[in-house]
Amino acid sequence: MHQLIAAPFLEQHVLVRPGSRGGALLPEARYDELRALDPSEPAPPWLVDAARSQWDDLDVTGQSLAEFLLVRQPSTWGHGKASWEVNLGCNYDCKHCYLGLKMKAGMPWEDKRRCLDIMAEAGVLFLQVTGGEPTIDKDFMRAYRYAWELGMMITVSTNGSLLWRENLLRLFREYPPYRVTVSMYGTTKASYDELTQRQGAWDQFVQGMNAARHARLPLRMSIVVTDDNGHEEQSMIDLCKTWGVEYEVFTNMTPTIYGGGEVLTAQSKEHLRVRKQFTGCNAGHTFFHMDPFGLVSICKIGRDDQISFPNEGIEGLARLGAIADRLMLRTGGCSGCSIAGSCRVCRPLAKHYQEAKAPLAAYCQHGDRKQGELNDCCSS
Q1: Is residue 96 located within the same domain as residue 49?
Q2: At 94, phi and psi to the nearest 5?
Q3: Of 71, 101, 118, which marks where a domain is finished?
Q4: Are 51 and 28 within one domain?
Q5: pTM reported for the whole predicted model
Q6: Which residues contact 316 (CB under 8 A, 6 or more apart)?
Q7: pLDDT tens-digit readout, 107-165
Q8: H-helix or E-strand spanning residue 296
Q9: How far apart are CA 160 and CA 177, in angstroms?
Q10: Distance in angstroms (rounded) separating the CA atoms of residues 87 and 103
Q11: pLDDT tens, residue by residue, 289-338
Q12: Residue 144 neighbours by CB under 8 Å, 6+ apart
């Protein structure tokens, strides 16, 4: 079982360790050297020093490469990251959820495994496993283990409700995740259960977090602020600090992936924040998203013109870059806008807001102006 991974990542080569946030850049010559060495050979002195320098608890002196190192092969596709919705089902029914329908459906195991093989071939090093709630999926554990064995650094995005289960804790001990990101919906039973629309959700969250912290999982909290729990924003931050867990605060709600606006009612108007100007991203070029049915899109938001891994294989990725460029350039309801060059959201997300008939303040800088000052393109 590997403790280190040497892999290409975008335009570089890296040395990373599952369960650790740290890593080191590898000169291309050193990466090529590792590829050429027989796995039965001992670790070269420079690798022993590099490992000890980056991780002071890791000493590979005298070990053969096969005992601790996995060398990922180069990929011509250049996709370093991906996200995967294992399922859309969830044991919560959160008011703000952007997935909309909670369907417990997906691919059979053989298709899941094939899709993971394709991801590895595409060069994916960092994989986010999400849902729905991924840990309720019947294939979650073996899919996680298989992706780990392929040499992926895995982030699990979860509501934390099942992190107390010994089978999950044992899995994470044996196959350390890169990160476990837990969504946080309040600091009291009343607000937490109300937002998740599940009685007892708060108790499950606390039980899961106590177990995860005791197991020293690499935790990160996503603090979700809505109309139900907005008054607890500071107490959620304070609790994360007490736990010694890093966190990020999310206050702006988004429509469902189907363009539905029903979830926008969860928005706390007092906590609606002005987004920074959108300056572009590499969606579809260096990373992609896969849904529970193996349909690949440029990201979680821009799901038009999906590619089917089960049907097309890795060759379908050849079309993804052009799809991304087309989706980012599409103007739709913003055609003719005089300030389109300084938008705060990407075009796929703006399209969802427009379909949901969301107030302009939720996504567009025109919403900052008085109604009489709006440009013609937004005043209809």
Answers
A1: no
A2: -60, 140
A3: 71
A4: yes
A5: 0.93
A6: 296, 307, 308, 309
A7: 999 999 999 999 999 999 999 999 999 999 999 999 999 999 999 999 999 999 999 99
A8: strand 295-297
A9: 14
A10: 8
A11: 999 999 999 999 999 899 999 999 999 999 999 999 998 887 666 777 87
A12: 129, 154, 156, 171, 175
